Amino acid sequence: MLTPGGGLPAFTRRIKRDVHAAWLAARDPRTPWYARAFGLMVTAYALSPIDLIPDFIPVLGLLDDVLLVPLGMWLFVKMLPPGLFDECRTRAEEAAARPQSRWERC
């Protein structure tokens, strides 16, 4: 899921793609209820502007995002049936490749 290499921009693109894939997997009917609830919590935390530790605290503010989101994603993927997250990741990549209007990007 999250392999090193490519630097910080590549890492953030992978996290963005995987959060979208987690959202798709949490809404899939093949996902068990406990994994669905956990996946929705992980995606809500990743997309929420509210953090456990506020970002204005120098190191700890960003450290919670850097550790909690990938750890939550890893646990969520472990809860899913085999192959489901790969399907959702492919759908998320296809959605990211579609053109967007300038209005939607704002």
- Strand content bin: under 5%
Assign a percent range to the helix content. 55-70%
Instruction: Count the domains.
Output: 1
Alpha-carbon distance between the termini?
28 Å
Total strands: the figure is: 0
Individual helix count: 5
Rg, nearest Å: 14 Å
Shape: globular
Low-confidence stretches: none
The run of helices and strands is HHHHH
Overall pLDDT level: 84
Please summarize the sheet with the most strands. Answer: none
Task: Decide which structural class fits the backbone.
Answer: mainly alpha
Descriptors:
globular, 106 residues, 0% strand, single chain, mainly alpha
Characterization of this structure:
The protein is mostly helical and 106 residues long. Helices cover 69% and strands 0% of the residues. Helix 1 (7-26) crosses helix 3 (60-79) and helix 1 crosses helix 4. The protein is globular. The protein starts with 6 loop residues before the first helix and ends with a helix.
Can you give me a brief rundown of this structure?
This protein is mostly helical and 106 residues long. The protein contains five helices and no strands. The chain starts with 6 loop residues before the first helix and ends with a helix.
Helices, strands, pairings?
Layout: H1 7-26, H2 33-47, H3 60-79, H4 84-97, H5 102-105
Helix pairs in contact: 1-2, 1-3, 1-4, 2-3
